[in-house]
């Protein structure tokens, strides 16, 4: 079940209720989902004529921006705030959704500033219908979840089922096509990932910083294929912005061998990664990472080297916690690394400037219900 919430303004096109948008809300209610239009003001004159006996409700809630209306309705239906989807057309809708911990979807026909900044956007009634259908059917569980002493790892889907011929490189190419293609598949990918994060209440963490683990030949311009995806994800889940577009979290100062593409070497050895990246000095100013909770996004992981390395630099910079989020995970080879950076994490690490200990396998568990949704979103 999914609670669908919006405001009267979201249904209006050129001052009149859009019959196609109204029908999507009626369909959602007919499918067993609670649906409501929320406003600080009185019920509009057109509401009954548009929704009739469909069961779509109107609720006047003064001060709805606090988000309490989201938690109240979640409790009423024995659900959680992350089981609510808010279609936002006004800044007040954005505030209601973010403060309430709901999944936020921007109405593409709105010119409101806060709405335009959201990462998930629908431009038509058909796109809204698609995202409601997918989100209502997504349990939100991670395929893999593991917590260790120095960092956590989450993976959205098991990629082993793609077949022996599918490598990390091929998956990355497919992901690139999905993200660049935009539209329904990208919206769906953002929606399921954000719901999984909201389930863990990451939106309630103070000082949430988002970053992307750099590719082997990153140009350091915050233009990785996952950069835009991560910024969109941040605007959907976070209430405060600590990351800045154009300022990547990590700098790849020297290209590293693309081992997943057959670059050779021991793929479990983090030395090549430690010696080719450092944190962006932009985040050193005013201690921007001190005490922060950092989420590092990568396309997929096999041995977990990138997350171990990222955690080492971030811990040295004073981060309170580090969570690595991979859209996919290959096999059962994930390792836990204890890496200590001995030098300035905002500068290249010199020889002997770090120590590495790999105590063993990463402690974690896979979901009892295999999540194969990602495999359909990244064909």
UniProtKB/TrEMBL annotation:
InterPro entries under this entry? Answer: PRTase-like, PRTase_dom
Q: What is the lineage of its organism?
A: Bacteria, Pseudomonadati, Pseudomonadota, Betaproteobacteria, Burkholderiales
- Name the segments for region: Disordered: 251-271
Source species: Ralstonia insidiosa
What protein am I looking at?
Phosphoribosyltransferase
């Amino acid at each position: 079940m999914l609670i669908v919430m919006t405001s009267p303004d979201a249904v209006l096109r050129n001052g009149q209720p859009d019959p196609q948008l109204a029908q999507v809300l009626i369909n959602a209610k007919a499918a067993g989902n609670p649906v409501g239009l929320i406003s600080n003001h009185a019920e509009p004159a057109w509401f009954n004529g548009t929704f009739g006996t469909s069961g779509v409700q109107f609720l006047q809630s003064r001060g709805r921006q606090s988000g309490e209306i989201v938690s109240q309705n979640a409790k009423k239906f024995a659900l959680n705030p992350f089981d609510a989807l808010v279609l936002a057309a006004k800044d007040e809708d954005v505030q209601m959704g973010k403060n309430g911990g709901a999944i936020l979807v921007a109405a593409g026909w709105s010119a409101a500033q806060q709405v335009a900044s959201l990462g998930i956007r629908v431009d038509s009634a058909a796109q809204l219908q698609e995202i409601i259908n997918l989100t209502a059917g997504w349990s939100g569980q991670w395929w893999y979840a593991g917590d260790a002493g120095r960092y956590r790892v989450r993976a959205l889907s098991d990629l082993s089922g793609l077949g022996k011929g599918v490598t990390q490189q091929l998956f990355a190419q497919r992901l690139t096509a999905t993200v660049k293609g935009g539209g329904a598949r990208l919206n769906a990918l953002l929606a399921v990932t954000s719901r999984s994060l909201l389930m863990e209440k990451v939106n309630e963490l103070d000082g949430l910083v988002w970053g992307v683990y750099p590719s082997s030949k990153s140009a350091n311009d915050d233009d990785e294929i996952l950069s835009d995806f991560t910024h969109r994800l941040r605007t959907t889940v976070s209430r405060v912005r600590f990351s800045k577009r154009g300022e990547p979290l990590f700098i790849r100062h020297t290209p590293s061998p693309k081992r997943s593409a057959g670059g050779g070497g021991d793929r479990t050895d983090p030395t090549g990664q430690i010696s080719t990246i450092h944190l962006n000095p932009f985040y050193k100013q005013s201690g921007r990472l001190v005490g922060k909770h950092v989420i590092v996004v990568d396309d997929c992981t096999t041995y977990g080297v990138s997350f171990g390395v990222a955690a080492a630099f971030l811990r040295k910079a004073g981060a309170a916690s580090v969570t690595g989020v991979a859209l996919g995970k290959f096999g059962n080879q994930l390792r836990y690394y204890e890496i200590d950076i001995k030098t300035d994490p905002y500068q290249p690490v010199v020889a002997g400037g770090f120590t590495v200990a790999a105590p063993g396998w990463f402690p974690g568990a896979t979901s009892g219900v295999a999540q194969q949704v990602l495999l359909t979103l990244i064909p």
